[in-house]
Design a protein that fits this description.
The chain is an all-alpha fold. The chain has one domain. The protein is 83% helix and 0% strand.
Length: 232
């Protein structure tokens, strides 16, 4: 620990900027891990089938309540509830699509929130380390040029130490930030793809199985039931 503290002190003023980005990186990683891995709940496989059952029975209001009861953690609840509510109220296809797209965009915005800052933090930490390196080298050679021959070695080593410490600490912040960004962005992309696909399926269910008056299209329902019986 004392070695790290000494290296930090020898790194100069840029070490404090690197430290601040390190703290922000740690806080953001904690927030994103909690949001994407702890708070977020994958939609259950039976969610779409349950919503289809409400559609088949013509119970759009009940379907709206069921979707809302899924909770915010599933993300799909508010989106499905929006579509069911508009269809139950006799909304047009255009209105349903627009409102569900708005709900989808709003929910996905909470998933992708601030994750991209990790890449920026990593890049800035690297650049700050480089800036500290250049500053240390400039100070080192400037001091050596005007110093007594007996002090030149000491001044040169102090400047090089500052330069190398800044580089090292910048990389210590940048590498975890960029690795965390890669994992969290991959998780984000999977969630976005899953919710977008499920939203599209629910939209098509409402579009093809319910008319603008909120009535189940019995012909479409019969065809679907017949196809299910054939598959079974």
């Amino acid at each position: 620990m004392s070695f790290i503290l000494n290296a930090f002190r020898e790194g100069g003023v840029f070490m404090y900027f690197i430290l601040s980005f390190g703290v922000m990186t740690a806080g953001l990683v904690f927030d994103r891990v909690r949001a994407l891995y702890v708070n977020y709940k994958e939609p259950a496989p039976e969610v779409r089938q349950a919503l289809l059952n409400y559609i088949h029975r013509g119970e759009l209001v009940e379907g709206t309540r069921y979707a809302k009861a899924l909770g915010d953690s599933s993300l799909i609840g508010k989106i499905a509830a929006t579509g069911f509510q508009i269809r139950a109220d006799g909304g047009s296809e255009e209105e349903m699509q627009a409102r569900m797209d708005e709900a989808l965009s709003s929910q996905l915005g909470t998933v992708d929130k601030h994750t991209g800052f990790l890449a920026m933090f990593g890049n800035v930490a690297t650049l700050l380390g480089l800036l500290g390196t250049i500053s240390g080298m400039i100070r080192s050679f400037s001091a050596v040029a005007s110093a007594n021959p007996a002090d030149r070695a000491t001044m040169l080593s102090r400047g090089i130490s500052e330069a190398m410490n800044c580089t090292a600490f910048g990389l210590l912040v940048a590498i975890p930030a960029l690795v965390a960004y890669a994992f969290l962005q991959n998780r984000t992309d999977k969630i976005v793809a899953k919710i977008t696909s499920l939203t599209t399926e629910i939209y098509h269910d409402l579009l093809f199985l319910v008319d603008s008056a909120g009535t189940v299209k019995t012909k479409a329902y019969s065809n679907e039931k017949r196809s299910e019986m054939t598959v079974n």
